[in-house]
Amino acid sequence: MENIEIVGMLAAFLTTSAFLPQVYKAYRNKSAKDVSLTMYLVLLVGLLLWLYYGWHIESMAIIMANSVTAILVIFILVLKIIYERTP
Length: 87
Known about the structure:
The protein contains 4 helices and no strands. It has helices spanning about 5-15, 20-30, 35-55, 60-85. The protein is mainly α.
């Protein structure tokens, strides 16, 4: 693995892990009322485009970061939808 790919993996780990506190807080509090649905939908589209790009250029750092982050964003969106329907 090239040194620049290691930098990419570290960046991917740090930016992806930044979503964990939001997922944990929404899950623990059973509330996602402060989460912007529009922002997370736009973010998800961007992540999927980055994933496509990473796949095209065969960059494992881009593929991994955007795959995991997309999963976390989908989880947050699902929690938002579930908790908004719960009275």
